[in-house]
UniProtKB/TrEMBL annotation:
Part of the 30S ribosomal subunit. Belongs to the eukaryotic ribosomal protein eS31 family. The keyword Methyltransferase does not apply. It comes from Halomicrobium mukohataei (strain ATCC 700874 / DSM 12286 / JCM 9738 / NCIMB 13541). The keyword Magnesium does not apply. The gene is rps27ae. Zn(2+) binds at C18, C21, C35, C38. This is Small ribosomal subunit protein eS31.
Length: 44
């Protein structure tokens, strides 16, 4: 995904933050979302 696809037209970021850490974004994989800092994973 290109970097500009993470932002809306008004410049706000559209990525989901980690509910455990709160300060990092979740990486989007094919079958899950994962936090690289604390290891939190949401399976789809």
């Amino acid at each position: 995904m290109a970097r500009h696809e993470y932002y809306s037209d008004d410049g706000q970021i559209e990525r989901e933050q980690c509910p455990r850490c709160g300060d990092t974004f979740l990486a989007e994989h094919d079958d899950r979302k994962h936090c690289g800092k604390c290891g939190y994973t949401e399976w789809e």
